[in-house]
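SECTION: protein entry
WANTED: fold as tokens:
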Amino acid sequence: MKDIDIARKVQLQPIAKIAKKLGLPEDSIEPYGRYKAKIPLKFINNSRLKESNLILVSAISPTPAGEGKTTMSIGLTEGLNRLGKKTTVVLREPSLGPVFGIKGGATGGGYSQVLPMEDINLHFTGDFAAIEKAHNLLSAIIDNNIQSKSASLNLDPRTISWKRVIDMNDRSLRQIIVGLGGTASGIPRETGFDITAASEIMAILCLAEDLSDLKKRLGSIFIGYTFDKTPIYARDLKAQGAMTALLKDAIQPNLVQTIEGNPAIIHGGPFANIAQGTNSVIATRMGMTFSEYTVTEAGFGFDLGAEKFFDIKCQSAGLSPKAVVLTTTIRALKYHGGAKLDELTIENLEALQKGIPNLEKHIENIKQFNVKPVIAINRFISDSDAEIEMIKETAKRLNVKVALAEVWAKGGEGALELAKKVVEIVEDGTEDLTPMYDWSMPVKEKIKILATKIYGAEHVDYTAQALRDLKKIQDLGLEKLPVCVAKTQKSLSDNPKLLGRPKNFVITVRDIEIAAGAGFLIPITGNIMRMPGLPAKPSSENIDIDDEGNISGLF
């Protein structure tokens, strides 16, 4: 059966019952229909966080075939609950762009899903819409100030990098000109659209501690300079109050349920190749407040989402995961070993052997953070016994735990071996998270550490523009912010064509963007797409609804 068919066969429990199972009073949540709800922030208890075991689910370098981190996260949660460990999964919200584009839905798969999958994949509780409106409000205020004669801050339009956003894949909006139509329509200038998940406001929402911190961070968004070189922030435009008002509900995490009726918290959705790539600090703390184990995920491979999870989110919020589950697929490793995409279902031990160095590098990276990994082999029906054995032998050689996971086909039952291995690591472990760098280091040093130790580069080059950006960062007094490197997810390097474990390469920093509200700097490497386009045959062509309101085509 397709994912949506499996989901439809589940008898959903009323959200009040799920809230009670989590540990919340039934009348304390804010329902959005029968099966979704917002959880008020007042229930977060920071004193209980150390009692919860935070587990991060990451992956090897992703391929077009997909590795299944979300499915693994949900399945592991079901498995831990089956072992009697009270566990909550905390995930990101799907973006409509990929849902209608090439990726499809993002609520897990098979018998490891969060429900109601149609609602979560579409408008959900309106969080993305609120973020979009808050972002575009600031855009409108900026252009209005440029146009204004009485209240103008004398903004230099040439220094403004703040665009607009929309939660849709629409390549025609990447570069646009606004203000056409005469003097009453504004000052013409070049700008564009990013997808909502790439908005700095998305990153801010997911790092904010509470409503007050959210407003402060929104006010710290760097806009540009005046003609006399004075830096301008959103607070100078008096925009933060109205923006925060638009986000007053969106800041509250969303409660839903898994197929097996366990609580799931879903909140926020920043990209991992341009932002931190993980759900909100608030959602993670909410899960940890009420759970013995809290399972969360980070976007793309360990070199992107997980590194940022550790070096930005964990350092900002004072979190320390007890274990990392490295989602691994045999077909992905064969792809990294040179096998063609249409031949990944054929046994190929030679290609698998050549692709294993990618797995080895990610294991090496996890250990650099002083956290213990467990390899989760996300099993597909095409995986041969010989291929599975090769991964197990690799794990033995690396002295790393490994488990075969069949979460898509069997849900929690298929994750029992993995769940037991995770519990073993937690109960035996004494390690504490060690970040890769100190935030107070020079910006260049922070970038060099990530490029050489995490990606495996020999050297970092800077363009003239990047060097100018470093000077601007110094002048603004922002050198002590962490770095959130933007690079391709397809390779450990900044070249998407270099698969496996590339060596002897140079990382080139083209420019460095400032996300002062989110609280990090963004060194840009390679060509990062912040407004995707639809493929020739988008997933939207498969989505339909019948006269009774039943949606089909979401996978």
